[in-house]
From TrEMBL:
Main localization category: secreted
Source organism per UniProt: Gordonia sesuvii
Pfam family, any one: adh_short_C2
Keyword Secreted annotated: yes
Residue ranges annotated for the Ketoreductase domain, each copy included: 6-187
Matches recorded under SMART domains: PKS_KR
Protein name per the record: 3-oxoacyl-[acyl-carrier-protein] reductase MabA
Keywords of the record: Cell wall, Secreted
UniProt-listed InterPro entries: KR_dom (IPR057326), NAD(P)-bd_dom_sf (IPR036291), Sc_DH/Rdtase_CS (IPR020904), SDR (IPR050259), SDR_fam (IPR002347)
Catalytic reaction list: a (3R)-hydroxyacyl-[ACP] + NADP(+) = a 3-oxoacyl-[ACP] + NADPH + H(+)
Subcellular location(s) per record: Secreted, Cell wall
Amino acid sequence: MDYAGQVAILTGAAGGIGQGVARKLVDHGAHVVLVDRDEDKTRALQADLGDQTHCVVVDLTEESAVDSVVDTTMRRYGRVDMLVNNAGTSAHSPMVDVPRHVLDQEIAVHITAPFRLIQRVAIPMTENGYGRIVNISSVAGLMGPLDLSPYGVAKTGLIGVNRAAATELAQHGITVNALALGPIATDLLRSTWPAEQLAARAEHLPIRRLGEVEDVAHAVHFLCHPDSGFITGTVLPIDGGSVAAGAYMVEQFRRWNADT
């Protein structure tokens, strides 16, 4: 078991990607603290995954939430070996129409909460001389997304947090890496895109399919693995080659122009 005796904190655990990552970590022996604001889904996931999990139901934008997560983890397990910052939200709107509270929410979820969680878990990780931190960002953080400016700004900021933390924590045996996700076929994505548009979107990726939750879970597993100790500060696109090919923005501009 790759993670026998190790403890992971996973935010955004109740969503499609979070559930996939949780299963992967548990399957490889980790104890996983499931963090999400959706109590019903989080407790259902805990019941499904069993005794290797514990849930903390919080809204990470609340002042006391980060301390609650880490303090609960330390009381229960006495250690933190892995942190996966996966919690997220997104607002669709042209940049000029974005209300201040929407921008503040995106920054709170994607930058402030991960920053503060890293601050807190870095203390026990440093004491143990070991840690793995993975931040779930987006291809929207690598290029200018249309009608998703607050999300793109926040995900770009998360990449900045990733690099700063990687530089400061490397000397303590802690690696910090990010994934830049392209379109992943979750229930959320399917519910917000018509089926024909999803099929067309897949055709504009070099790999010619949407990503699956397992693709993300596998990448998290790789970066969390004890053998990945010489990889830090990286941003790994999980996007079917869209960033490399420029296909993401080609398709975005095509759709934008068709609507105007």
